[in-house]
């Protein structure tokens, strides 16, 4: 077993080839459960869930809340050769025209967490 495979297995409880190349990354159990309701032909291995959304193979890998826990999951996904990782979850807002359940696609983000700065030279 390769070093990368060992790390993926230790952190996510599955082999790298069990993870789709496109991954959705929810933080909360409520969001994870809601996303899993959209997957067809889903299967769970370790802490990952894999299935189809329409014809696209996707995995759902919960990260927990906060950048440090998300960074650990992203390190494992990088070692599993994942090509696309999409953060998805519930959010709060400061404007009244966004209702509970609305979908918001952010075009920018504030990086004041303390973890992101360690990856800024690596992120493309």
Care to describe what's here?
- Helix content is 25%, strand content 20%.
- The chain has helices at 3-12, 29-36, 67-79, and strands spanning 22-25, 40-45, 48-53, 56-60, 84-87.
- The chain has 124 residues and is of the alpha/beta class.
- The protein has a single domain (3-118), classed as Rossmann fold.
- It contains three helices and five strands; from the N terminus they run αβαβββαβ.
Task: Summarize this structure as a short list of keywords or feature phrases.
single chain; alpha/beta; Rossmann fold; 5-stranded mixed sheet; 5 strands; 25% helix; globular
Elements, N to C (H/E): HEHEEEHE
Shape call? globular
Number of strands: 5
Output mean pLDDT: 86
* Strand line-up across the major sheet: 2-3-4-1-5
CATH superfamily: Nucleoside phosphorylase domain
CATH fold-type name: Rossmann fold
Count up the domains: 1
| SS content category | alpha/beta
Largest sheet: 5 strands, mixed
- Kindly, what is the distance between the CA atoms of the first and last residues, rounded to a whole number of angstroms? 29 Å
Count helical runs. 3
Strand content: 15-25%
Class, according to the CATH hierarchy? Answer: Alpha Beta
CATH architecture grouping: 3-Layer(aba) Sandwich
Radius of gyration in whole Å, from Cα? 15 Å
Low-confidence stretches: none
Helical proportion?
25-40%
